[in-house]
Amino acid sequence: MRRPVAVRVVGPMQWIVYPALISVAATIVLQTPVELFGLHLPEPVIPMVLAFAWPLIRPSVLAPMVLVTLGLALDILTYGPLGLWGLTFLAIYSIVLASRSFLAGQDTAVLFVWYAACCALAFLLAYVVMAFIAPTPASLISVFLQLLPTLLLFPFAHRLIERFEDGDVRFR
Amino acid sequence: MAFRDGPFENIKVPLVWTAAVTVVIAAIGCVLLLISDARAQNSPYQPVRAGVESVSGPVGGVFAAPVRWFGHASDYVGGYFFAVSENRRLKRELAELQPWRDQAIALKNVNARYEAMLGIRPEPPVAMRTARSISDTRGPFSNARLLDVGAARGVKVGNPVINEHGLVGRIVGTSSNVSRMLLLTDVASRTPVLVDRTDARALLTGDGSGNPRLEFVRGVGSVQAGDRILSSGDGGGFPRGVPIGVAARGIDGSWRVKLFSDRGAIDYVRVMLFEDFGQLIGADDLNAPPLAALDTLAEATAAQTTAITDSAARRAAAREAAATPPAATPAPSTAQPVQPPAQPAPGGTE
Q: Considering all CA atoms of chain A, what is the largest pairwise distance in Å, rounded to the nearest integer?
């Protein structure tokens, strides 16, 4: 007689809410005014990881709404214009959602290239929006200095995808 | 008949489509937010920002506290090991600065006499509040900090903020115990400045990099590398003469300013409770007709009337004396220099 196998259903708390809370906490921690030898803490855009990973894990109605909430929180925490980061996260989410069938099962290197392209596009979008809002466009060097640590967060995105991609058999 | 038993029983909307619709609706909301919010003081979302900052500020303070303690500990250890070299350096600096101190005292004395002679009204002393930075934003699109003092201690929007080296930024938002400081490097920062050597005016414009731009420089050749840049006080937002930095050429050829405030950590700062002249006097008073106050004056007393009449008579007499041609006077035969009266010898007896 076959023993019953427990099917683990991963709910939105596991792959949406907890990572979102962790990203907010990490953002607040990295805003600590630390200066050692003239160097500050890096300030990557941490929710970019979630905007890339969530559509690859599975399509969801909740994920875009949480991304907008994260964007608004980031705007307030960084004193940016409200809606700036929410819009960029949604742009990344929609691009990855559209290319989901292509990215599913791809090698890690392909995912990283796609992640880098998405991050570059997100910063370009934010740069253009800020050029319209602020009287002076931002320095490209400082844009690159924030893009670089954001790219270094790819292992977290990859880990999130690996962890939850097969978490629910209904989405295989 | 239940809905699931009807003709729509087999219609299933793909989850991708519902997610896409959600994305579109949320994106429209974000665009509307961007249009309606300009990070300005009159933004309708300013109370929301203040509320979130008043909550996140203490949380950031909790994270900043261990960092501060570690910094104090490393300073203590460093001071113990480098005490001798530090002592030599300080003695050398003290010897260099003593002549400057004497000159400063002399110039202060001369300046006070000039101000008294010319009737210049000097700027009143500015009250300050010491604050601690509890959160730091350093991205390309925003450079701001949270300070642990707020409206409860008299901090207002627009107050300049300095550290021990120079100007750091200004207050752009306050709640009761937390205030938001916009740094000089933020893309929204505009500061009227002057070049100390030539007194030329310019505008310090942040662009998210560490060294803000110097734009709209008046005059040809009015800026050289190494010129000190001070706040000009134009517009009344900042007091005049607050040190800001040193002019330097950027890699793109534009004039930039190396900020004095970057010489050390911006952890403890002072908020200047500066009131510009536009805030001291109401706009209606400034725009009033010149003689509007005459209607509210009380009647002159007898003594005042006598003094006014006497003054008018003296002026009329002076005018008549000036109008009358002077009588011809004989020319002196020899020009004799006027001799000063003899002075008594010092220490002499009378």
A: 73
Q: Which domain holds residue B193?
A: 128-283
Residue B293 in domain: no
Could you count the other beta carbons within 10 Å of the beta carbon of residue A69? Answer: 16
pLDDT confidence of residue B270:
93
Q: Which 8-state DSSP code applies to residue B147?
A: E
Spell out where B83-189 has E strands: 128-138, 143-147, 160-162, 167-174, 179-183
Whether residue B138 lies inside any domain: the answer is: yes
Q: Which amino acid is at B148?
A: D
Q: Which pLDDT tens digit goes with each residue over B182-226?
A: 999 999 899 999 999 998 999 999 988 889 999 998 878 889 999
Subunit contact A86:B67, Cβ cutoff 8 A: no
Q: What is the enclosing helix (H) or strand (E) of A158? A: helix A154-164
Q: Which of A43, A57, A78, A79 would best serve as a mutation to test chain B binding (most B beta carbons within 10 A)?
A: A79
Number of cross-chain residue pairs from A and B with Cβ atoms under 8 Å apart: 171
Tell me how many domains chain B contains: 1
Tens-place pLDDT, residues B244-285: 999 999 888 889 999 998 887 778 899 999 877 655 556 666
Query: What is this model's ipTM?
Result: 0.86
Calculate mean pLDDT across residues B107-125: 83
Residue B134 φ/ψ, nearest 5 degrees: -115, -5
Chain segment A82-99, per-residue pLDDT in tens:
999 999 999 999 999 999
Please name which of B262, B247, B275 lies closest in space to residue B166, comparing C-alpha atoms.
B262
In angstroms, how far is the first alpha carbon of chain B from the final one? Answer: 132
Q: Are A23 and A47 in contact (CB under 8 A)?
A: yes
Q: What is the nearest CA distance from A135 to chain B, expressed in angstroms?
A: 7
In a domain, B123, yes or no: no
Question: For chain A, what are the domain ranges?
Answer: 45-164
